[in-house]
Specification:
The structure is a single chain. The chain is of the alpha+beta class. It has four domains: 116 residues, Immunoglobulin-like (Sandwich), CATH 2.60.40; 135 residues, no CATH class; 134 residues, Immunoglobulin-like; 112 residues, Four Helix Bundle (Hemerythrin (Met), subunit A), CATH 1.20.120. It is 22% helix and 40% strand. The strands form ten sheets. Strands 12, 13, 15, 16 and 17 form a five-stranded antiparallel β-sheet that branches. Helix 3 packs antiparallel against helix 4 and helix 4 packs antiparallel against helix 6. The radius of gyration is 40 Å and the shape is elongated. Keywords: Membrane, Transmembrane, Transmembrane helix.
Length: 579
């Protein structure tokens, strides 16, 4: 039955009806809904299908014939639905426009009951798809150490009885509390495999390497796919072959949980900076013989397998008499199924000023090896730099080569100074203090200070009574304190960004009078906008907070730290003017 705006047409009445395969079904069954019209139309608008999930559709079929000079026409839009809950649901009206007139179908009610048992011969296409398609996340380690590589491979298993024609990702997982790196799948290779004891075909869809940044139980979000496939039916064609039916199925890998173990405290070296894996460590100068004012490159390099991008390279300690520039960071790291592999290094430019011999002292690097479950410490060899030609400092340099952490001793030409043998003495005047003008001025001074003390005391009382102002002043001092601490910590990534983040938060607490619990980036952005802060200033402040968060998981150079410090000073200055 149909609702029409024009009941009659020139040739015959127009019908537009909704037909259901059943009006009562179990929650494990499927419902077919057909919208049929006897005239061709446009702008078909389906209902919302509240309480159901669309598995397939709309599929369109058209039938047209001439019988005894009379034309018969039928057009159908079909949907296959799966119930999402038990209860009674109403499938609302659909609409279609036929020759400029809008027609509506009548709503119908459907009852969804508990699961029902069905003989194997009555299995639907969707039942076969449910049993024949599986998405699995294969994890290399379920109980890794902190910062140890974990590989997750997502495989799609399909029974040989079905054909997968296409797929698309519905929900890609977000790897919170992990450093992650995708390994692209450039070609889908189908392999024979076994799933649940039965023969299947499998294909790798996604690969990712994870490094946990937090201990305890960490959850991996599932990967979900919408898969188009063809499933054999019980119907056969003219030649006896099974007729395939097209359907769609949503598959999910399910949530997975990793139990991340902390690194052991027993035997942990004092210079350990978070390196986990298996590494080699070298300090290599580009040359050991050169002239004054020439330069050399002293390279501190670490190569091997492990979390190469997630720890700090040891700093090089050189004698004060050598001019040393900030190191340049470089890396050559590739990520495969076993994790990161390659080399990271800091290159120092060193320029000697005077002729002599200068040592590059030995430095150490420590890492934790998950395979041996032990810490290992590597030390570089001490290297002597010989400066052959150049000016002298009027001194002789001495250095014990077999001792550790020894500094260069430089003696200058004016080291020895003779003491004078003849003194120039003069008599002291015999003026008396008591009874003098100065004596009486000091005696009367306390009386003159009494009015000043009264004024100062009242001012202190006024300041003490200004509770809100005192809070702001204390917070301002605290912000300056942490900004000063950040400046002192330049070069130490963790200490610097912790101090910088505290300085930014305490500045806002003083300026905007908000509590620490309100410090989300969205909240801060909203408040700054309400306070008429300029867009560039607001974005700069939020960008600094994001850098403080990223610094926990990514290496930051000293150049980047200096830029962030300068940016923080500039942003605070701008906010003072704008708010």
């Amino acid at each position: 039955m149909a609702i029409t705006l024009n009941a009659q047409n020139d040739d015959e009445s127009v019908t537009f009806e909704m037909e259901l395969s059943k009006d009562k079904l179990g929650i494990n069954e499927r419902l077919r809904v057909d919208f049929t019209m006897n005239k061709d139309g446009d702008n078909f608008n389906p209902p919302d299908f509240n309480g159901f999930r669309v598995l397939m559709g709309p599929s369109q079929s058209i039938s047209s014939s001439w019988i005894n000079g009379v034309r018969s026409f039928s057009k159908t839009y079909s949907y296959t639905l799966a119930p999402t809950a038990r209860g009674k649901f109403t499938i609302s009206q659909a609409t279609i426009v036929i020759k400029g007139t809008t027609y509506k179908s009548l709503p119908k009610e459907v009852e969804v009951t508990a699961s029902v048992e069905r003989p194997d011969g009555e299995r639907t296409v969707d039942d076969v798809a449910d049993e024949s398609l599986h998405l699995v996340a294969e994890i290399s380690k379920t109980s890794p150490y902190l910062n140890e590589a974990v590989t997750v491979v997502y495989k799609l298993y399909a029974s040989p009885t079905i054909d997968v024609t296409n797929f698309r990702a519905l929900d890609n997982p977000k790897y919170n509390n992990f450093w992650s790196q995708d390994i692209p799948v450039t070609k889908y290779n189908i392999e024979n495999a076994t799933y649940d004891g039965k023969p299947y075909r499998s294909v790798i869809l996604k690969r990712v390497v994870l490094y946990p940044q937090k201990t305890g139980e960490l959850e991996l979000e599932p990967l979900s796919l919408d898969v188009s496939l063809q499933v054999p039916t019980n119907k056969r064609d003219f030649f006896g072959g099974r007729i395939l039916a097209q359907t769609n199925k949503t598959v999910s890998a399910g949530k997975k949980t990793l139990t991340v173990k902390p690194l052991p405290t027993e035997g942990k070296p004092a210079d350990f900076s978070g390196a986990v894996g298996e590494f080699d460590f070298f300090v290599t100068p580009s040359k050991t013989h050169l002239n004054a004012s020439e330069s050399l490159q002293a390279v501190v390099s670490i190569n091997g397998k492990g979390n190469l991008k997630l720890f700090e390279i040891p700093k090089l300690n050189l004698p004060n008499s050598l001019e040393v520039y900030d190191p340049e960071y470089s890396e050559s790291v590739r990520t495969n199924l076993s994790g990161m592999e390659g080399k990271v290094m800091n290159s120092y430019t060193v320029v000697p000023t005077f002729r002599g011999k200068y040592p590059i002292p030995s430095i150490s690097f420590s890492y934790f090896n998950p395979n041996t479950k032990k810490y290992h410490t590597l030390s570089s060899k001490e290297v002597m730099i010989n400066v052959l030609e150049g000016p002298t400092s009027g001194a002789v340099t001495t250095q014990g080569l077999n001792s550790n952490n020894k500094q260069l001793v430089v003696t200058t030409a004016d080291q020895f100074v003779f003491n004078k043998l003849h003194s120039n003495l003069s008599t002291i005047s015999t003026n008396h203090f008591f009874g003098s003008t100065t004596f009486f001025m000091w005696w009367l001074l306390p009386l003159a200070l009494i009015p000043l003390a009264i004024i100062f005391g009242k001012k202190r009382e006024a300041i003490a009574s200004d509770v809100e102002g005192n809070k702001i002043k204390r917070a301002n001092k605290l912000a300056k304190k942490y900004l000063s601490a950040a400046k002192k910590a330049l070069g130490s990534k963790d200490s610097f960004y912790v101090a910088l983040e505290k300085a930014l938060h305490n500045y806002l607490k003083a300026k905007l009078k908000i509590e620490t619990s309100e410090f989300s980036k969205d909240k801060i952005a909203t408040i700054l906008q309400e306070k008429n802060a300029e867009e560039t200033t607001k974005n700069g402040f939020i960008g600094l907070l994001e850098n403080c968060e990223m610094a926990r998981y990514s290496p930051f150079s000293e150049v980047q730290m200096q830029q962030d410090y300068n940016k923080a000073s500039e942003v605070i200055s701008q906010l003072d003017k704008q708010i």
